[in-house]
Amino acid sequence: MTVCPEIMTAIPTAPQRDGGLPVRRTPGLRATILSFVWVLVGLCGGSTFAAGPKPNIVYILCDDLGYGDVRCLNSDGKIATPRMDALARDGMVFTDAHSGSAVCTPTRYGVMTGRYAWRSRLQSGVLGGLSPSLIEPGRLTVASLLKDHGYHTACVGKWHLGVDWVKLDGKDVNPLSIETPKQVHNVDYSSPFANGPLANGFDEYFGISASLDMVPYTFLRGDRVEVLPTVDKAFAMMHGREGGKTRLGPAAPEFEDEHVLPALTKETIRIVESQAAAAKSGKPFFIYLPLASPHTPIAPTAEWRGKSGLNPYADFVMQTDHCIGQIVDAIDKAGLKENTLIVVTSDNGCSPQAKFDELLAKGHNPSDVFRGTKADIFEGGHHIPFLVRWPARVKAGTETDQTVWLGDFMATCAELVGAPLPENAGEDSVSYLAVLEGRATGPVHEAVVHHSINGSFAIRQGEWKLAVCPDSGGWSAPRPNNPQASKGLPDVQLFNLKDEIGEQTNLQDAHPEVVKKLRALLEKYIADGRSTPGAPQKNAVEVKLVK
């Protein structure tokens, strides 16, 4: 694992262990002074943000972007990502950030709620474009929290948390999985849907229901489709290639997959420009931008095809990087750079649909030094890019090896606005504001839990990672439900990521005491309904540690 050369020249280089994880640095004078100030403020019963303006927040969640796809994180990477690299130079890089799951829906649930999605009804897999809402009625979301504290809240992009469509008489859809081909016409697309983004704290919404390979193929605005899907379409999974296509289903006549990324970018810029005056007058905005790229269908527009010299996936990553840059430029042009917190991250690791064989043959590994891909319990499934720029509070050219997960956004926002979280909200969320400001003097998390597509668990504490399964839990070898592949393998896997980031040596037999300790902690987190201090809470369903 490497970080931008520009960053490493701006700060003292952290010594690297054999496994690639930076050694924790002792905080310097600035961090010590800030910590002392924070203690004084706390004793006075206040918050550092009580006296200052609240930041605008733009949270960009890429779809299936691998850690190794961002040049500043992977010095051996072959995809040019100048705009993300610039954000890293101007802000902070997290080298040990994780998605809540190795696939998309559960990660999005965690971002919005600060709660692991395996506490919800969804125990494995993902929702479809027609699935009902996953977020429980009345649950606090990041958007509702910020809206209650004076923010204008907007969601632009791939929702994929379910909405309650009006179904045709006698018809139904799968509640917790992708709809079947026979179900795609079971919805009354002319009627408004309920319990979408507007019901979860957003003032405005524009985007698509789920992944761009799921119906309906039409834009949504507010609580309804913008153009009725009156034809059936399917798109090539990778433009310019023969082979697989997306699911066939209802589409707006003019809707094309390659138009989505530019449309989401244009809408985000419109919101920034329309909210700039209010933001300068004391009403900040929050934009949650869950992109649909570079997920399938891999659909770069004409001007980006062939740009990478690698393959269409790499072209699509480059276009995604460019669109992020356009949004950053809009923020800066509006005079909002100093006090706008920008986060760029990904919902999970890179998908095999990117054609790893083609990319590896040209020297590019989307998973960088990590084992596995999207869907896996291995690091390649959930170890993700995480870049933050916030000139007012985050020192340029910094990096941290703090272990965090995307659900920490909830507690961070709560601290930003000086609002303690209720007992029944953000049960797994820990603020990383102290990390951003250079005040953290130790790990912010006791431990972090990982989850794979088939519901397999892992728990990470310090250098140790325990996976409670004998296989990948996902799409890499050894695959689940393959007795031949997992024959003779232990029931659990214990890795020391300090010594070996590639997760090749299972140490469960050599360190049974670590296995026992981590398993007990994971069982406690499950039983308590939370992994943070506070009153025990209830999970939505019984959670089984071993599937």
UniProtKB/TrEMBL annotation:
UniProt key word Metal-binding: yes
All copies of domain Sulfatase N-terminal, residue ranges: 55-418
Domain of life, per lineage: Bacteria
Enzyme class: hydrolase
Gene3D superfamilies according to UniProt: 3.30.1120.10, Alkaline Phosphatase, subunit A
Enzyme Commission number: 3.1.6.1
GO MF, any single term: metal ion binding
Alphabetically ordered keywords of this record: Calcium, Hydrolase, Membrane, Metal-binding, Transmembrane, Transmembrane helix
PROSITE patterns for the chain: SULFATASE_1 (PS00523), SULFATASE_2 (PS00149)
UniProt key word Nucleotide-binding: no
Residues annotated as transmembrane: 31-52
Signal peptide start and end residues: none
Record-linked Pfam families: Sulfatase
SUPFAM superfamilies: Alkaline phosphatase-like
CDD domains, per database record: ARS_like
Family affiliation: Belongs to the sulfatase family.
Name under which the protein is recorded: Arylsulfatase
Annotated source species: Caulifigura coniformis
